[in-house]
Amino acid sequence: STLPAVAEELLREIKKSFQETSQVPDDLLLGLKFIFGPSAVPALDLVDQRSVTRVRSPSGRSLYQVLGSSGKLYTCYSSCHFCTCPAFGFSVLQKSESLLCKHILAVYLSQAMGACQELAVSEEQLTNILLAEEEDEG
Q1: HEC-encoded secondary structure of 73-131
Q2: Residue 71 resides in a domain
Q3: Structural domain range at position 27
Q4: 127 and 135 in contact (C-beta within 8 Å)?
Q5: Is residue 138 part of a domain?
Q6: Which part of the chain is the SWIM-type domain (predicted)?
Q7: Candidate from 45-49, 72-76, 90-94 with smallest mean pLDDT
Q8: 18-51 pLDDT per residue, tens
Q9: What is the pTM for the complete model shown?
Q10: Is 16 inside any structural domain?
Q11: Cβ atoms of 107 and 64 closer than 8 Å
């Protein structure tokens, strides 16, 4: 599953602009708010607070962890646009009201702005993170 082309293009424009000027111009911020609605501003806050961490194992497998505003750590899978937060399950999957939750949007924005923390872990540690998420779900 991929984001709509307009969303992908907007994220590309944000990345390009940020690389050139270290800023995101107002027109792109407005576009962000238009496309992603109420998750845009909280996602930008998460990026500003450097709440996004890319967790990577030696084999190259990776996932993202986002420290939510509530202080809870959520696991995001950017490859399939999935987050473990309740808002994702409700607004994105059940109601189809939003494209993404603020956590996944924060992952994409932090990638575009080079604002990701990096954490190298062993294969076993990565597996434990994934298994812990499954236990939380079930």
Answers
A1: EEEEEHHHCEECCHHHHHHHHHCCCCCCCHHHHHHHHHHHHCCCEEEECCHHHHHHHHH
A2: yes
A3: 5-131
A4: no
A5: no
A6: 74-112
A7: 90-94
A8: 999 999 999 999 999 999 999 999 999 999 999 9
A9: 0.90
A10: yes
A11: yes
